[in-house]
Amino acid sequence: MIMKIKGFIVAFTLLLTVIFNSGISSADGTVPGTSIIYGDCNSDGSINALDLAGFKQYLMDSERTYNSGMDLNLDNTADSVDYAILKQYLLGIVTTLPINAPTTNIKTGVNYKIINRNSGKLLDVSGSSVSEGGNVIQWGLTGGANQQWSFIDAGGGYYKIVNRNSGKLLEIMNSSVDNGGGAVQGIDDGDNSQKWGFIDIGGGYYKIVNMGSGKLLEVLNTSTANGGDVAQWTDNGGSNQQWYLVAQTTGNITYTLIREQNPTADQSDAYAKIKAAMDSAVMYYNNLTNISKQLTVYYNTSVSTADGNINGTIRFGPSRSYMDTRTAIHEIAHTVGVGQSSGWFSLVKNGIFTGKSATEELRNITGVSTDVLHGDSQHFWPYGLNYSSEVRTDADYINHCRIVNQFKKDGV
Ligand SMILES: [Ca+2]
Ligand SMILES: [Ca+2]
Ligand SMILES: [Ca+2]
Fold first, then answer.
1. N or C: which end of the chain has fewer CB within 10 A?
2. CA of 52 to the centre of ligand 1 (A)
3. Considering the entire predicted model, what is its pTM?
4. pLDDT tens per residue, range 140-179
C-alpha cells in the first residue's frame, strides 16, 4: 500500500512536471485558445483534494517554475499563499478562483488606528492585556497604545498586525476557519491565522481578510457598543466588516478651561462635565485631523446652549445636556472656521458647500458619488453634529472630523 501511494505521488509529480512545463505562463494568465482552470493543478478539469496534494509536491520541488494556473491570487508568484487559498477553496470558504490579491500599499513601521466603519469604535486589546490569548474587541477612541497597530510584511500581500502595547499579533484563535472564530492576540508562531490581507474598497476603507481562513475581521452582531467582540465571518458586505485605517496625525488642539478661584458647587460640577466633554472632543480632533488650535473654554450661565468662535473661545451655558462630546466637537468646528471664516462664506453657495476636498470626503464616507455637503451661514450637514440626534454611533464623530479636516484643505 505504501509503495502504491509512493508510486502515485511519483506519477503525480511527473504529471505535474509535464503540466508545469506546458507553457501556461503568459502574463495575463491565458494562452491563445486555452483557458486556465485556476487551481486545477493536474488539468483533469476538476478541482479536488488531488490538486491540493499536487500543490504540496510542487512547493517541495526546489526547481519548480512559475505556473500561472496555480497563482490563485494573481500576484505573479505561485507559493504557499496560493496553496492556502486552494485549501480555502476546497473548504468552501473561497468560492471563486482566482481571487484578487490584497493591496500592498499598506505602510509598515507606522502605527495605525483601525476603526470599524459601522460603529466608529477601534480595534482594541481588551483591558490593555499583554497576555497570550488576550481578547481583541472594539472600544471607543482612548488614544491608548492598545488601540494602535503596525504592520509587518508577511509576503504575498499579507501582513502581520502587531499591537503597539503588547507587541503581540492579531490572530484567529486556534486557527479556526469557522464563522465566529475569535480574534485574539498571540505570540508570533508563523501560522497563517496570524497573517492578514487588506482589500482596498475605496474611501479609506478596507476589508481585512485572514490568510488561514479567508474570512473577514468583523465586529460580531454589528455591535456599536464598547466591548463588542471582534471575530471572523464570511464576507457579507456588511459595514461591520469594513475598517477605516488612520495613521498618526498632526492634530494639536489644546484648551484651557477658565475656572473661578472659589467655585460654587454648580460651577465645580459644570467644570467637571465640560472638561470630560472637551477631553473627549479634543481626542477625536487630534487623532483624526491635522488641525492645530489653542482654545479658551468658559462656563457662562448667560449662554443659552453653547457657542464657539474663530477667536478660539468656546462657551458652555448652564444646561448639562450640552456638556457632552457632541456639543464640544461641534463647537471646535466653529473655532476652526465653520460658519466663522471668510473662506467658509465664499465656499458656501446656494446652500451647498462647494469645496472639492470635503465634498470628496463626504462621498468617500457615504459611497454615494453625487452626495453634497449642505451649509448655511453657521452650519453644515450631514456630520455637522448640530443636534444630538445626529450621533447614532461613534462613527459620526469620526466622519465629522474627516470632513472638517478637508474643510481646512478647501480653505475654510
Ligand atoms: Ca484537478
Ligand atoms: Ca500567488
Ligand atoms: Ca475577540
1. N
2. 9
3. 0.82
4. 999 999 999 999 999 878 899 999 999 999 999 999 999 9
